[in-house]
Amino acid sequence: MAQGVMVVCEQRDGEIRKISYEVLSEGKRLADKLGAEMTVVLLGSGIADKAAALGGYGASKVFVADDPNLAVYTAEAYAKAIDGIVKQADPAILLMGASVEGKDLSARLAGKLSTGLAMDCTAVRIDDGRLVATRPIYAGKAFAEVVISSFPQMATTRPNVMTVTPPDTSKSAEVVKVDANLSADDLRTKVLEVRKEAAGKIDLTEADVIVSGGRGMKGPENYKILEELATVLKGTVGASRSAVDAGWRSHSDQVGQTGKVVTPNLYIACGISGAIQHLAGMSGSKVIVAINKDADAPIFQKADYGVVADLFDVVPAMTEEAKKIM
Amino acid sequence: MEIIACIKQVPDTESQIKIAPDGKSIVQNDIKWVMNPYDEFGVEEALKLKAKNGGTVTVVSVGPKRVTESIRTALAMGADKGILVEDAATDDGDSFTIAKTLAAVVKNIPYDVIFCGQRAVDDDEAQVGAMLAEMLNIPHVSLVVKEEVDLAAKKVTAEKPIEGATLVTESSLPVLLTTQKGLNEPRYASLPGIMKAKKKPLETKKVADLGLNAEDVGLAGSKLKIMALTPPPQRSAGKIVEGETPQEKAAALVKLLREEAKII
Ligand SMILES: Cc1cc2nc3c(=O)[nH]c(=O)nc-3n(C[C@H](O)[C@H](O)[C@H](O)COP(=O)(O)OP(=O)(O)OC[C@H]3O[C@@H](n4cnc5c(N)ncnc54)[C@H](O)[C@@H]3O)c2cc1C
Ligand SMILES: Nc1ncnc2c1ncn2[C@@H]1O[C@H](COP(=O)(O)O)[C@@H](O)[C@H]1O
Question: Ligand 2: distance of its center to the CA of B194 in Å?
Fold first, then answer.
């Protein structure tokens, strides 16, 4: 019978990513509630030495598939390798992060395992021995509580939402090496190149602080003042669709229903009116600040703190104030 | 070249979402239905591939009769034919059952490239594309912002952004690609396009025509079930930060973020 919780860890260049610690912490909470074990899957090339330490997060066992073909993520190879491990270990719950990789992998894997998948959850809990997941739908205009009738019950958790439990570094997990069993059919997609962005650029979905600019920024050159504020606050810069469509910012900076859905601790909207499609992307932020010269702008209805003023005066002044205390 | 674009009809992004009395679905009365914005990228890219390589663009959808309108939109943009699986048995199905139904349709037609949206902006599942590729046993690349098909070599190179980097991938054909913003600018249907679309073939199919059983699709076949829908936690308007000058307001705001919100 299917038992326990299994967490799929995500690594990049041999380092385990922050999202995985969020999932491990949540996985352990679920496993404790079930009175069952948490096991972990770690895939990559030359990553076996990272496995034992995951015991600190409460993993009893870490299944490691170490294979040169798994060095960089591809959907088919990863799904194949995990499929084998899941069939062997038979977990009741299978969790991963709702990162770019986790969303892609979980969907392919759920197809392979013929099971249900709750994508991009903001809460997971156990009720009567079963997983109950909460997920925003209609870009956060409603929340759905879902259950899965098949095993493993799969879910991915939204980045920046789950709290990381500090590890107990005295503990280590049993490491079980497994063969990825890849055939030519699993390698129909190859990664030719990994083009890295400028070092230090934090992705919107992972940022703690986002300073976002809309049409009120008036032109691409003015984003400099947002970059400066973001740097002091250790955050990153986002944009509304109007700013992206005007060609001021890249597509990957767009926040909203047809852009990225973000959950930072602090979202500062500068010169953004607060259209429903924009709100859909950022209303899950913990604290929202709006800076707009129009006191009637709808964004103020959602903001924890509103500043009615010209952003070109307020933003640089904020940067100076923040420098004093950061 | 044979190209398929899977499209879903969703509530217009302006729509207010109201939860129905059953507590599990939404009120559909006042909703304006549109093609999922990500699927417009798929249709556009399909038309671009056809312009380059020749062939046929087929639009496939699963849903009620109203979806014919969105299929006509795709035909007016330039797609050649449409297939709609219109069968009450598919109602309220999860991603798994939708992928299964699409797989049953697609299996019977030739294809080199299939496009899906990276996610549908109603259920936000972001699953159907990858699941469909798995069921068809073909490779897939998601979140593509650039693609180039080499028909002679039977290969596609694609670019996909991940956190902090862009991956350049190469896959063999046939392939499934999921689309996102940045891939292209979807065209509008022209008036002659709209006229022509009326005469283009639009086939409707039932689940039985696809060799599927009613129990395998829709709510009956779903593995993921909605127990309850709730409105999002209410965000009410907060404080307006006071101050005589913008500088005073900025100082007051930073102080509030530090001392009250304890966020910086
Ligand atoms: C299908 C669809 C999908 C969409 N998806 C998205 C999406 O994902 N994300 C998104 O953002 N939008 C999206 N939109 C667009 C959305 O409807 C709005 O048009 C857009 O969000 C408006 O951007 P904005 O707030 O920057 O511009 P505006 O609405 O023009 O607002 C500009 C604001 O700046 C203020 N301002 C101007 N100058 C100053 C100044 N000097 N100081 C302070 N304030 C100033 C103004 O008072 C105004 O409130 C979508 C639309 C559709 C139809
Ligand atoms: N009912 C449907 N009919 C046709 N295609 C669909 C349907 N549902 C989802 N899709 C496709 O799968 C993509 C992702 O949808 P989802 O997994 O539901 O977020 C959509 O953008 C469509 O391309």
Answer: 24
